[in-house]
């Protein structure tokens, strides 16, 4: 468990609308827990489809409460953009991790777990476990 600081969550999609919608869904399903800082970083600065290093960095800074930041992505170039930012070393807050998880299910698991006050490792593990969610 954390020292009262909550893990921040950043949701990176090629679409601003998708990122916002998944953030809203995850926060809504987290229910009555503590409000987790969640930011959507979708699309490009001009509102098009794609990913933006600047939007991702700004989103991560906005949710950083000192307990780490979990970043979940949708598709290929979103992953590559986050990896490039992490490699730069000073573009994202200390304790930022790219989480290998399905975008929607992982986001919900991450936000629910973070709302319980879990640390970054537990949030990452919960999101990654979402790969095991079976539908049939």
Structural write-up:
The chain is α/β, with parallel strands linked by helices. Helices cover 45% and strands 14% of the residues. The protein is built from 5 helices and 4 strands. The protein has helices at residues 16-29, 53-63, 76-88, 103-115, 120-129, and strands at 8-13, 38-42, 69-73, 96-98. Strands 2-1-3-4 form a 4-stranded parallel sheet, with helices on both faces. Helix 3 (76-88) links the parallel strand 3 and strand 4. Helix 1 (16-29) crosses helix 4. It starts with 7 loop residues before the first strand and ends in a 7-residue tail after the last helix. The model has no long low-confidence stretch (mean pLDDT 94).
Shape category: globular
Widest sheet, order of strands: 2-1-3-4
Q: SSE string, helix = H, strand = E?
A: EHEHEHEHH
Give the distance, in angstroms, between the N- and C-terminal Cα atoms: 33 Å
Please indicate the percent range of residues in DSSP E strands (runs of 2 or more): 5-15%
- Whole-number average pLDDT? 94
Helix/strand/pairing class, anyone? alpha/beta
Radius of gyration: 13 Å
Number of helices: 5
- Unreliable stretches covering 5 or more consecutive residues: none
Please outline the major beta sheet: 4 strands, parallel
Helix fraction by DSSP (H/I, runs of at least 4): 40-55%
């Amino acid at each position: 468990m954390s020292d009262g600081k909550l893990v921040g969550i950043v949701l990176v999609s090629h679409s601003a609308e998708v990122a916002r919608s998944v953030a809203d869904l995850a926060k809504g399903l987290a229910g009555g827990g503590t409000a987790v800082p969640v930011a959507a970083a979708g699309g490009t600065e001009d509102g098009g489809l794609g990913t933006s290093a600047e939007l991702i960095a700004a989103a991560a800074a906005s949710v950083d409460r000192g307990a780490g930041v979990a970043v979940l992505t949708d598709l290929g170039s979103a992953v590559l953009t986050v990896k490039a930012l992490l490699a730069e070393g000073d573009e994202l807050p200390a304790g930022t991790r790219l989480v290998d998880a399905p975008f929607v299910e992982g986001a919900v698991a991450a936000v629910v777990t973070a709302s319980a006050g879990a640390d970054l490792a537990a949030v990452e593990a919960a999101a990654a476990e979402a790969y095991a969610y079976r539908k049939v």
